## 1
Amino acid sequence: MKLCQKVAIFVLTLSFQVACADDWQTLSQAAKAGQKLSLQGQYVHRHQYRLSAFSLYRQQQDFGLIERRVAEDGIPREIIKTGGELSFFTNHKKGLMLSLADTTSLFPAVLPVDVNVLKDSYTVASGEITRIARRNCQWMWLKPKENNRYTQGFCLDIENRLPLAQIYQSNGKIIEINQFTRLSFTEPSKEEVQPDRRLTVTDRFTLPPQPAWYRQSNTSDWRYLKKLPKGFFVLSHKDMKVDPRADKGRHYIVSDGLVNISLFIEHFPNTPQFKKTMPMSGALSSAEKIQGNYKIIAIGNLPETGIKAFVHHVEIK
């Protein structure tokens, strides 16, 4: 091979590596913007035939960022995020259940602060530039290395890298989308980040730690859980029983940095029985298996084939 050809191949290879590195750096900037930028606006959440709208207010205060998320349709409900704590405000039990479902994606904080945790399971590629909420943004795509996760797309603001839209895709078909329809980076007033006084706080929930610390996770205190599928790690776990017939149980929040799964492992005095699982919608799927006197249930934002493969590869002690 001639020297000029070798040089050309080297330059092309180096350019490709630099481009990939730049893409990961861009995603890292997007993760920080999604967590920290002050803003006010409105976004829509669409899956299948359902469409919901939310208003979002974020303000920097002395103790950090405070965020108010208001459902604009259906049962009145709001979520206040202060640091790592979520507070749910509603006057209806169903409103609380809907609010808990709303937390499966706290858009636009949809990327882990440490995007390096994604490199084992995804490749990254940049896409076209478009306009969303009257702002220019560029699509970045995270494509799974194995065909048991969704492809996810993020349209990142050209100026500050905030995700203006998030898409779940499977075989080229859009499964679920979050997208701003109105957005301003002016800081809201203190009144705008306070909950509606007509609503009462019904529950509080502490968010699990960011995946940046998963490598220090101590597997010896996982209790019933022995091993997870490759690329997944435990963010938090606590005692919890879903089925009243179980004599003990544990709830694990599991992630690969992008996918989030609620994993329930329950022990029964006698061999448990399969029961019809709750129907899921959008990007959520569920699966279960029985191993001896244990029942394992997983619910998360994976395709049906992916959540079944996940449960199949979970090992208990």
Note: The first strand starts at residue 39 and ends at 47.
## 2
Amino acid sequence: MNIQLEVNDDLVSQLGKEAITNKIKKWLEWEELRMLATSIHEGIKDAGLDANEISQTARSQAWEEYKKNNLPFLSNL
């Protein structure tokens, strides 16, 4: 989908069309991620699960896997 916007000529002169386009695209990407995160959080909550506990478990598992694959001397700690 294409969207056309009115943009002040001075702003386009100072920032450039490409920079403005890139800023808008980046903002839209972040907004999509925010909406996805909200949806996941609501799904976890609706399922009666604790998001903090799930996050902590995932972090612990990721750290253990990282140690095993990248820091073999720490895997027993």
Note: Residues 50-77 form one domain.
## 3
Amino acid sequence: MARSAPPRPSADELNPAADPRTKLLPKIERSARRAANNILASVGDFTHRQSIARLQSLTTALRPTLADVPKTLRFAVVKSQYQPNLYTTSGETVAATLLASSIKHTGPLGLFTRFKSQFLIIDTDGVPDASLWMQKVGRPGQEPIEYYMRVAQERHSALGGLSQKDVAVRAESINWSDYDIVIALDACVPASISLSYPDVLWCYMPSEPNMPLWAASHRKCLNGYDTFLTQRPWSAPGERHICDFPWVIQYYGLYDDILGEKLSSEPIVYLEPNLAHSLPNLPIINGCEITGPSGSMADVARELHKSRYFACFGRYGRRLWGNATVEAICAGALPLGSPGLHKNRAFFPRELTCRSFPQLSRMVADLELNTGRYDAMAQVVREITDISHFYGPVGELWTRLADKRIGAAVLATGQG
């Protein structure tokens, strides 16, 4: 069963309109985001002092705006029992516990370290408009229906031997007014429920871009929801119902917060999972240990937290969302790889572009000798990640929540 929801904050904390600064948020954030878009669109020489100064100026402008977001903001991150990604501990609010329970990916852990967030697994059986996950079945690169049945019934040690199906709860059993913003993977909360809670900002994220839901949502928002989350890295405010909101919502220092220890990197090169799995044997780079993913997601996070570098290049026949790269940067590793392989090319400015192991060996040797250069480049990619995978997308949802509640208040007073 799901644990009790986080304590309900005061009325002023619940209502963004109660704070007069709220009315300024959209204007301030949109100005900052235009600057962000200009920077993120460029993959030039970020070591130039002028470029770094612009980036720092942007971050300085954006962070105080987001400092106005109450720490009591309450998110619910929701999936169905058939979802083969993310966490298994339904009702959990603690990021470290969620990380330890994850089947795959680390996901939006930043929502749990910075806000009053809760993770829920919903039983969608017998509810057609909450079972859109079935659009994945049989699609190119996706699994047959039997796979998802096994996912629901697989037993997990984090659940004391129970399955996701065992701990899933019906959507109608939850008091959704306990939350300000709901993020539903594959829109697993039916419209009959979401429309009953108009004060909540209802968001949904299709788990796979080849789902018909993903393409259709660019034209029109799903009934019962306010915002379609694209999985894309954030770079600018979205239009109408569309918000670029990535799968991984994290910031540099997140794993310090979760693991309870400060970063202490070692000369380790961590290989991106696709790269590591493509090699019969791990290569040798003088002076550095080479490692790759193994064990649980918590084990992966600890290994990344120790690593000084993250390597990502090769030929995979597709472009990567870059989730593993974001996790590495947030854990403290410096990414070295191919920008053309990623949907977000800004992670790899020219100084960090690497396409082979000989080139990787030369770059690591140079950076190990020039710690000032390492620190400068690390600062830049951390700032970019903070904006595109935490401050930007979270700030946009906060603004959309404020706009929705202010609009509702205006209509309620007859001023619309």
Note: The longest helix spans residues 371-412.
